[in-house]
Amino acid sequence: MSAATEQRPLGYEANGINVISEGERKGSPRDLFWPWFAANISVLGLAYGAYVLEGGVSFWQACLAGFIGIVVSFLLVGFIAVAGKRGSAPTLVLSRAAFGVQGNKLPAFVAWILNVGWEIVLTVLATLATATVFERLHWSSGDGTKVVAFLVITVLVVGSAALGFDTIMRLQTIITYVTGALTVVYFILVADHIHWATVAAIPDGSVQAVLGATVLVATGFGLGWVQVGADYSRYLPRRSSGRAVVGWTTFGASIAPLFLLAFGLLLAGSSKSLESAINTDPIGALSTILPTWYLVPFVIVAVLGLVGGSVLDIYSSGLTLLAAGLRVPRWSAALIDGVLMIVGTIYVVFFAANFIGPFEGFLITLGVVIATWCGVMLADILLRRSSYSDADLFSSAGRYGSVRWAPVALMVIGTAVGWGLVTNSYASWLSWQGYLLGPLGLGGKTGTWAFANLGVIVALVIAFAGWLILGRAGIRRQEATPTAAETVTTG
After folding, report:
1. By three-state DSSP, how is residue 434 classified?
2. pTM, whole model, 2 decimals?
3. Closest by alpha carbon to 321, among 166, 115, 164, 121?
4. Residue 486's pLDDT is what?
5. Which of 24, 171, 331, 469 has the smallest number of Cβ neighbours within 10 A?
6. Calpha distance 422→424 (Å, rounded)
7. pLDDT (tens digit, 9 = 90+) per residue, 143-157?
8. Handedness of CA 150, 151, 153, 154 (dihedral sign)
9. Where are the alpha helices (DSSP H) in 2-43?
């Protein structure tokens, strides 16, 4: 490792969207456990218990939907992480091999919006949680508390992301230990609020309701991370086991949400008032059932868990912004995203009347689009037999070309079909969706299939199957092309 790029604790990362050099590749697949666990141990996972039950399913149906949605969606993240190990570059740079260097700007822009959206959501939750707990402790209340909490959280998130990869990896390790221990204590303290008879009495829902719950969980967990899957495996040596990369990514990301969601289902299913309160202030509502003496540790576990996710989002959104064509240093891109996160958080915390409606609308709407990209990317990874050409990832004149129209068309078609098969009743500005439910005989926007979120699955399948068929010949031609002269590119 060169002196210029050697990483130290809290040191600045010089790399941008460039391919990581051989001397800088380090670690093993098991190191992926730490960032993915820390990013997904957020107590937001508990709140999903209320979101899922609101769809009209029983406890056992919700558990099944949660297990499938979490594990399968994070398995997709693990498959995409393999590309990072193979290509040693960020996810949305490796995506250029499928879409072309210029054509890739479309999925890069979508992925950037999704990352920024999640940054805002997680920062909003951390701010509201802190304000609610401080009010319960009678320390302070009102907008002043929210402002202070917001500023502290913003500095921690943006500062860590700007410093870069090694700082994030160390921070996520700390978050894993602290939040893991404090979350177990939370489980113990609120266990007496679970009433099994009430939970077991929740009636079964329809098959469509179970499918809708499964897709909601998948979009809220793994599908929200697929576009960054390779960002944290790109530093691994290329000889690392692909199976281990998939395994440790999936295990690290899934294990905490599985327990959190199950416990959240038990709590929300035991109390209708708690279930309703979660829709207004998810994390704050979960603090109301705690003894006063544990509120400060709860703030720590809530904020650190949400920060763990925000840091990964803002770091990756900066890389994605560079991959979309912005020519600034990596830390500058992180700061730009930080400004957008600040503006979005201020709007939601101080001006928005409802949180859960726009949140679910955001998840499903962009979930359809990112599912199409994910389908193309998964098929592309499956079809490739040789390594990526480092230099050609940065040149429109190289083997990957400028724009590859087939995957772009698949993304557009998959999105158009997907949006026609989903509805968002809580977000009025998305009422135009679901336009295919009537013509296809699925009961229209008020029928049994209206809230099954079928469009996310259909969009992914269209893109995956389409590129598996259409991409094979082109990829073989790419791999037969002599490698261009290597160049050093820093983003």
Report:
1. coil
2. 0.88
3. 115
4. 46
5. 469
6. 7
7. 777 777 778 778 777
8. positive
9. 33-40
In the chain, what are the domains? 31-480 (1.10.4160.10)
Q: Rounded to an integer, what distance in angstroms lies between the CA atom of residue 238 and that of residue 199?
A: 48
Residue 95, Cβ neighbours under 10 Å: how many?
A: 29
CA 337 to chain centre: 16
CA nearest neighbour of 384 among 95, 159, 154: 95
Q: Radius of gyration (Cα) for the chain, nearest Å? A: 22
Could you tell me if 111 and 231 are in contact, meaning their C-beta atoms sit under 8 angstroms apart? Answer: no
The Cα–Cα gap between 29 and 451 comes to 38
CB 111, CB 337: distance < 8 Å: no
* Contact present, 94 and 376 (Cβ < 8 Å): no
How crowded is the C-beta side of 23, counted as CA atoms within 13 Å? 8
Which residues are CB-contacts of 30 (< 8 A; sequence separation ≥ 6)?
244, 248
Q: Which DSSP string do the residues of 326-368 spell out, in sequence order?
A: --S-HHHHHHHHHHHHHHHHHHHHHT-S-SHHHHHHHHHHHHH
Predicted confidence at residue 101, as pLDDT, reads: 95
Directed axis angle between helix 295-323 and helix 105-136, to 10°?
Answer: 160
CA–CA dist 486, 394 (Å, integer): 10
C-alpha closest to that of 75 among 258, 308, 254: 254
